[in-house]
Amino acid sequence: MERIKLSIHHLHKLVAGEKVAANATARIYAGDQLIVVEEMQGQTAWYDRYIQAKDDNGQPLRVEWDCDGDASMDVSRVEVCSCCGGDESLHG
Known about the structure:
This protein is mainly β and 92 residues long. The chain has no helices and seven strands.
């Protein structure tokens, strides 16, 4: 099954020189069409989210985001296992 993979390279903000949780909103587009809005909160370094997008039109994907700290992300289409939806820890 095909999903959209949102790769969060990092998400955090600095408070008094310490990395702490941040809030971000990612908007995923297929061509010029907005197909998914994802809200996230936390502190992470390299985390993948697998998202089902019913309105995906097959056009090239891009992601834009707003964040109250520092974030970096990218997006792609991937085939995932139908039993786990991309969460390989369920195969453990």
